[in-house]
Amino acid sequence: MSTDNKYVFKLSYDSNSTADNTIDASILGTSLINMSQLIKESTKVLHGEEADARVEVQAHEPGSFIVEFVAWLDNGGIEVLRALGIATTTASVSIGTVFGALKALRNRKQVEKQIIDDVAEITFDDGEKVKIPVTVDKLVSNFSIRKHISEVVKKASDFEDGATVKLLDDNNEVVEEVTPEEVEYFKAPSRRLMAEEITTEKAINVVFTVVALESKTGWKIRLPNNDEVSARMNDEAFMERITNRERQFIKGDMFEVKLKTVERIVDGKTTTTRSIEQVIRHRVEESKKVL
């Protein structure tokens, strides 16, 4: 890790109880641990498992309770801090940081997400759309990242109503501020609610490699990229037309099918299921066709 990439920033808890430059020890301990983990895990999400960051704490200054952090970063690490909102961003979209995105998302239900170039366009159940950088979307869609942010921001308000949380740069300029009214937006949803589901349906040519005429499950197909995958057979009419006598004509032959793919993404991990909704045509010479 390069020691040249140093970035200093500050976390401020501004409330009645911190006016005398003190803070509850449990809040401070929680904040220190979660801020460190937030930066370390965000670095790995955006730059891979080999990337790392070291986070240190310096003596705080008089006034509102302020903790000064020193982050030692790998190459590209400053981009992680910019994506989080800890460092000033130059993003081309109006909502360019995780802190800004959480204020815009407001924990509303997302019904659609489209990725265009480096921008994620999110549609909510109330019809509103927002655009955020893909790097920011990766972070706000990660349960561990959301949990650490929640611990840093929401713990202060849990301890005392009316607390304002600020992130400041080395010149004491406010980079991000979370008001008491906005704190609720930073609460981490449950893993179940953070699950993202992307469904696509398209006609493609596949080859049946495993045929299970007696069941909807157990079928396998070879995709155009030569990957062999399992797929549920939901075309009951096709199964009724096919008899055991015709099994040999199906296995190994190419068919055009309507393939439905469902990708379920939880905490950055993707589970994919596929189903054949319709068998459109048998792509062989006329004498061998079974439909």
Automatic annotation (TrEMBL):
Listed name of the protein: Uncharacterized protein
Organism: Alteromonas macleodii
Lineage: Bacteria, Pseudomonadati, Pseudomonadota, Gammaproteobacteria, Alteromonadales
